[in-house]
Amino acid sequence: MKIFTSLFLFIFSLLAFDIQKPKIYNDQNIIGWYMSEKLDGIRGYWDGKNLYTKNGNLIKTPKEFTKDFPPFALDGELWSKRDDFENIQAIVLDKEPSNKWSEITYNIFEVPNAKGDFLARLDKAKVWFLKHQNKNVTIIKQIRCEGEEHLLEFLDEVVDLKGEGVIVKDASKKYHTGRSPYILKVKKFLDMEGVVLGYNYKRDGSFKSLKVKLEDGTNFNLGGGFSEKQKQNPPKIGEVITFKYYGFTKTGKPKFASFLRVRDIE
């Protein structure tokens, strides 16, 4: 199992695009940065010809969905509405596109490799889609942040509407990739992914918790957040799961961790 998990994570990393990834907001000075709602969908990278997941897997869309998309790259979220992730995932990652794609929109938050600052890059997409109308496309609204109080007020608004969180970005920076201190994720809680290694059971044989391995190699037991139905049919060994947590213990393990969902290999 150890070899399988290591191989899985190795292949997983090879498939991934070199894209922007946010760090976690921790009281940094974000006055004058731009903030937007973090949509809980499937990230879609348009390379000028096709849509791919963040891990490099081709997304099969209906032809009309990407009609008149530009010859340059776009980065965005395939999304329907708040609190609808399982439905979005089923539609977007289906092997053959169904008529349920009518529920999905492509919400652009970056124009990779374009010249200029963040707002100039977004303008490139805005100009394109003004000339090439596509009802499936939205460019995510950006709000200039006046400071931490403004940021937290906006976060409260998003969460009250069952949104996931907020992304705040230093608009002055040129396009860059990798984990960035100039792009920050703000949530009421944190989330993380791990690979299921096995199970722990109670004395009566019923499900107690999952044995989970994190990307950094840390192993821990995840027992919170499961419905009775999920306890009867827990995630399979080798599957990638997403869970929420609130910081770390002194031993480096996620604190107050709670299961959210199984994450398909996007």
Keywords:
266 residues, OB fold (Dihydrolipoamide Acetyltransferase, E2P), D-amino Acid Aminotransferase, Chain A, domain 1, alpha+beta, five-stranded mixed beta sheet
Tell me what the structure shows.
The chain is of the alpha+beta class and 266 residues long. The chain has two domains: 173 residues, D-amino Acid Aminotransferase, Chain A, domain 1 (2-Layer Sandwich), CATH 3.30.470.30; 74 residues, Beta Barrel (OB fold (Dihydrolipoamide Acetyltransferase, E2P)). It contains five helices and 15 strands. Strands 1-10-9-2-8 form a five-stranded mixed beta sheet. A five-stranded mixed beta sheet has the order 4-3-5-6-7. The radius of gyration is 19 Å and the shape is globular.
| Class of secondary structure makeup | alpha+beta
Please, what is the average pLDDT?
91
Describe the sheet with the most strands: 5 strands, mixed
What's the architecture of the largest domain in CATH terms? 2-Layer Sandwich
**Major β-sheet strand ordering:** 1-10-9-2-8
Q: SSE order in H/E notation? A: HEEEEEHEHEEHEEEEEHEE
CATH fold field value of the largest domain: D-amino Acid Aminotransferase, Chain A, domain 1
Give the end-to-end Cα distance, rounded to a whole number of Å: 22 Å
Please state the oligomeric state of the protein chains shown.
single chain
CATH superfamily of the largest domain: DNA ligase/mRNA capping enzyme
